[in-house]
Structures are given as C-alpha cells and as structure tokens.
Amino acid sequence: MLGLSDGRFHTDGGIILESQSALFPLLDDSNWSDGRGILKFSGTLRAFGHFGMSLGHIIDPWVEKHEEGTYLSVVRWPGQSHRITIADLHGNPQNGQSGATLTLEGTEVFGGVYQAGTELDPVSIVANP
User: Fold this and answer.
1) Looking at the 3D structure of the chain, how many domains does it have?
2) Which of 74, 77, 72 is nearest to 124 (CA)?
3) Is 68 helix (H, G, I), strand (E, B) or coil?
4) Domain for residue 1, yes or no?
C-alpha cells in the first residue's frame, strides 16, 4: 500500500500512523492473563489507492491467543459487530514481531486481491509507544 504513488490511509479512533506502522489504542485487556486470552484494540484504518479506490479496512482489531493458536480478528463491516479472523499469527506479538498469514476469511477485507496464506506485515504489541 505504501508503495502506491497515490496510496493513503484514513484513520478514526485515535490510531497513530508511523512510517511503516499503525498503532491502535488498547481498549480492553481484562480478558488477558498469563499471555492468553483477548486483547481488544479500537479504531478504524481505511486504505485507499489506485485513484481513490478503497483497498480495505481494519476495524477494532483483537489479538486472540488460545491453546489452538493466536489470531488477529476484526469487525467485518463498518457499523456492525460480526467479527472475522483475518490472520493467523506465528510467534508471540508481545515478545517482538509476530509473523502473520492471511486467512480465507481475511481475503474478503482486501477485496480478494490476496490469496489465503499470503504473508502479511508483522504484528507487534507495544505498551505506551
């Protein structure tokens, strides 16, 4: 996205954009204990490019770590509450960067441009950037 000559982002909800990162504010960590559970973040990030075309959005991301794995989920559509898992995370995002792989559900968020299994940018959880 950043490589597009007309690529741009629009943010809502306190997201901080840095050179290669979007920092979502922590909403709720009450269901997180001993490195497991759900970390809820808030905000909406919309990506645009190719002469203003919407390229996807990330709404209220959650990092969910359970026995079966670690996932990144988002609200599927603006104004709704239905969540989908967009990425499988590999590694612990609290201990540095965690690799991320696009899920089949996640392909919808990017308009089917990328296939399931595509490597995404790493995910990191940082305290008070």
Assistant:
1) 1
2) 72
3) coil
4) no
